[in-house]
Specification:
By secondary structure, this protein is of the alpha/beta class. It folds into 3 domains: 167 residues, 3-Layer(aba) Sandwich (Rossmann fold); 132 residues, 3-Layer(aba) Sandwich (Rossmann fold), CATH 3.40.50.1220; 175 residues, Thiamin diphosphate (ThDP)-binding fold, Pyr/PP domains (Rossmann fold). It is built from 20 helices and 20 strands. Strand 6, helix 8 and strand 7 form a beta-alpha-beta unit. 51% of the residues are buried.
């Protein structure tokens, strides 16, 4: 058995002569990751990663979580980091395995959040033969990564891993991808590397604080657009004090990675999705103060619609860039304004019970709000089904809400999975559109295997509903018998009960409010993975 570095040192001090090469590259890598605070690895390994897999039995401190699709592994790493405040690793197999995970790495990059990808590659001696799985792994990695490196050999693997973790943890969070050739993993290495310093958020300049204070004192309408640390904890409290003192509006991006919501939290308005409503929503605002985000732009271009959503006459003003300390900036701004009074908080008031009868999107959200337990985590990829009814959870029990950050659908269930691994003592509720759920339904298997406390509510409207809306907005509403089947999920109908049960998750189908009421009551009263297919 390969010993830990401490055991080796003690043994050497006792006069034992250690054999050369007693630790291989994979073991030095794992020791370094654990020492650097990376304690979870979401993995879908292949042949090139077998030395890493084997090392899991000889290096303590790493929890390996098997995912049946790489997009689940990368999305789970995103959800874990959002809730844990530190990175997880992924273990991916060569270029094709990485390619399978790119969509949710794109989403993680847009959060932005910390992820350390360990990507296996062919042994260096084998790469010149252009074997079937040979590809330009680095080229794939660069499309979604802030930092990419390939280990030159087993003696540099540990140092490379320490640099990867440091890069990932650089504020506000980055995607770091370390490419590990198979022989660099199996050949002898010397030792692990110690953790490198975390590069935290930069301070905000006094000028930025003074400019924002001046705008707020000018007496013209001001709104804050908030993201990141500004939407929870001390940052949100400081923003609430500023709003209470000045009358400024608090707004978050349409899709924000994590926000504290519910009773006892500072209420924040959500920017509408469509360009026209978003511009109207901000109309009359003289200054839009940006905290951890950019000025709003449309998700897509539409005929005769602007891409920039800042209305005419509104001037964007940056208080804190994403890499800067938004919490400290908001607290300093509150102090500069003398905003000492406590902020207004959302009261605790359960949504009204929906009327008996067939389920609607609104009825689903009302019932979720009634049963949501204290301190729950909501992973929301309900898209068009849930967006209009988002305000219904404003006065529900306090919770964290995680949303689709990068627009690539299929992250809802993986993010819920990672969040449940990070916070095993908190109930996770996954609000999931049926079309996007099919991208990464393998997350259910991981939830069952790891016995995660996740309740998934599928909005089963049997369509890509958002794309039906998009037809109209791009002026293609004359689509007919050839176009509409591209957006329809009937013939055959997806059976989510069978899909879930086939992966070990207890499931039930409901089509009226009484059925959903009973199903949610049961799911919230028990631990473990459950799925509710809500026919809407």
């Amino acid at each position: 058995m390969v010993r830990s570095p401490q055991d080796r040192s003690e043994a050497a001090g006792a006069g034992e002569i250690l054999p050369p090469g007693a630790m291989n590259g994979a073991e030095s890598l794992l020791h370094t990751l654990v020492a650097s605070g990376v304690e979870v690895c979401f993995a879908n390994p292949g042949t090139s990663e077998m030395s890493f897999v084997n090392a899991l039995d000889r290096v303590d401190g790493m929890r390996a979580v098997l995912c049946l699709f790489e997009g689940v592994a990368t999305g789970a790493a995103d959800g874990y980091a959002r809730m844990a405040g530190k990175p997880a690793a992924t273990l991916l197999h060569l270029g094709p395995g990485l390619a399978n995970g790119l969509a949710n790495l794109h989403n993680a990059r847009k959060v932005p959040i910390s992820v350390v990808n360990i990507i296996g590659n062919h042994a260096s001696t084998h790469q010149r033969f252009d074997a079937p799985l040979t590809s330009d792994v680095a080229a794939f990695a660069h499309t979604v990564s802030h930092w990419v490196a390939s280990s030159a050999g087993p003696r540099t693997v540990a140092a490379d891993a320490a640099r990867a973790v440091q890069a990932a943890r650089t504020a506000p969070g980055q995607i770091a991808s370390l490419i590990l050739a198979a022989d660099a993993a199996w050949l002898p290495a010397e030792r692990p590397s110690p953790a490198l310093p975390v590069i935290g958020p930069a301070p905000v300049s006094d000028l930025a604080i003074a400019q924002s204070a001046r705008a707020l004192r000018a007496g013209k309408p001001v709104a804050f657009l908030l993201r990141g640390e500004a939407l929870r904890g001390r940052g949100l409290q400081a923003a609430g004090r500023i709003a209470a003192a000045t009358g400024a509006r608090l707004v978050c991006d349409t899709f924000t990675p994590r926000i504290e919501r519910g009773a006892g939290r500072v209420p924040v308005e959500r920017l509408p999705y469509r360009p026209g409503p978003a511009i109207a929503f901000l109309q009359g605002t003289a200054t839009l103060i940006l905290v951890g985000t950019q000025a709003p732009v449309g998700f897509f271009a539409y005929p005769d619609q602007p891409s920039e959503l800042t209305p005419p006459g509104c001037e964007p003003l940056v208080l804190a860039h994403p890499h800067e300390d938004a919490t400290a900036a908001l607290e300093a701004l509150a102090d500069a304004l003398g905003a000492k009074a406590p902020p207004s908080l959302s009261p605790f008031r359960l949504p009204d019970m929906p009327a008996d009868g067939a389920l609607t999107d609104e009825a689903v959200m009302r019932l979720v709000g009634r049963y949501l337990p204290d301190n729950a985590i909501v992973s929301d990829e309900s898209i068009t089904a849930g967006f209009p009814h988002y305000p219904l959870l404003e006065t529900a029990a306090p919770h964290d809400c995680l949303q689709l950050a990068g627009g690539a659908i299929g992250d809802g269930m993986p993010v819920a999975t990672g969040a449940a691994v990070a916070c095993p003592d908190r109930k996770v509720v996954s609000l999931q559109a049926d079309g996007s759920a099919m991208y990464t339904l393998q997350a259910l298997w991981t939830q069952a295997r790891e016995r995660l406390d996740v309740t998934t509510v599928i909005y089963a409207n049997r369509a890509y509903k958002v794309l039906l809306d998009e037809l109209r907005f791009v002026g293609a509403d004359r689509a007919g018998s050839n176009a509409f089947p591209m957006l329809d999920l009937h013939d055959p109908v997806l059976d989510w009960v069978k899909l879930a049960e086939g992966m070990g998750v207890e499931a039930v189908r409901v089509d009226d409010t009484r059925g959903l009421d009973a199903a949610l009551k049961s799911a919230m009263g028990q631990r473990g993975p459950r799925l509710i297919e809500a026919l809407v």
